[in-house]
């Protein structure tokens, strides 16, 4: 019995040590019409091109001013208070580091899959960047290099089209709500993974987000599901328990025979 307990402890440790997929942080809301990100504490509308869906803009493409207006005035699933994704400087200050980098060491350029842009304390600084590099585990067009962060060697893992739980993630530049200057604003290209200042007059897409778990308590919406990684862990552990029980000797059968029960319990090896 002792060895069986030790075995399951080992299995639990190994399963917990496995990297959890980023989608474990995206919890379905309104039957998949939105997703709550538990790390960013925001709710993503599942329809990334809602401006086109509603007929607000042809192909969903808007300049920066119109994109902000669309988000600010939107009522979706009976909820108001939507906005564009936001970002802040990795330095924690008011100014951004505009020099290009391939590894997230500046605000402009590309970041590393699984990390995205973050401050020195580890705080996420780009919501769209986190979605691209962490939630969807996509790779940027430029290969990250700590030895030469200003280079842009082609990344052999790019392009990718991981869309996570979303129906689609259009490969266009998406606006943030943060200005980069009088005539420019920050955007993130969800095809290449590049974050950069972009002319406000250019056209980009508007992915609506809402602060907090906006739809959790709304009438008629689905409850919090078990995160995917947690469900997989529980299923695996339950399966091992079932196997162990089937392989353990039946005490009644053993008592009626001359067999002896091993003191250390049944081994699964």
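^ Assign residues to that structure.
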């Amino acid at each position: 019995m002792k060895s069986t307990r030790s075995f399951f402890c080992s299995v639990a440790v190994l399963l917990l040590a496995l990297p959890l997929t980023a989608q474990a942080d995206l919890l379905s809301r309104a039957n998949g019409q939105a997703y709550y990100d538990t790390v960013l504490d925001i709710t993503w509308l599942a329809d990334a091109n809602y401006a086109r869906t509603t007929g607000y803009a042809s192909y969903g493409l808007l300049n920066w001013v119109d994109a902000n207006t669309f988000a600010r005035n939107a009522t979706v699933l009976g909820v108001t208070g939507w906005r564009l994704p936001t970002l802040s400087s990795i330095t924690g200050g008011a100014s951004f580091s505009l020099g290009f980098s391939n590894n997230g060491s500046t605000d402009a350029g590309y970041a590393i899959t699984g990390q995205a842009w973050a401050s020195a304390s580890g705080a996420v600084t780009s919501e769209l960047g986190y979605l691209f590099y962490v939630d969807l585990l996509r790779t940027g067009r430029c290969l990250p290099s700590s030895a030469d962060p200003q280079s842009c060697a082609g990344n052999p893992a790019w392009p990718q089209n991981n869309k996570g739980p979303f129906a689609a993630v259009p490969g266009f530049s998406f606006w943030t709500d943060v200005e980069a200057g009088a005539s420019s604003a920050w955007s993130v290209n969800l095809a290449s993974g590049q974050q950069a200042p972009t002319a406000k007059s250019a056209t980009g897409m508007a992915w609506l987000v809402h602060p907090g778990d906006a739809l959790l308590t709304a009438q008629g919406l689905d409850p919090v599901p078990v995160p995917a990684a947690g469900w997989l862990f529980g299923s695996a552990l339950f399966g091992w328990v079932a196997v162990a029980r089937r392989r353990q000797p039946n005490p009644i059968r053993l008592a009626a025979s001359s067999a002896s029960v091993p003191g250390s319990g049944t081994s699964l090896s």
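The CA atoms of residues 11 and 17 lie 10 Å apart.
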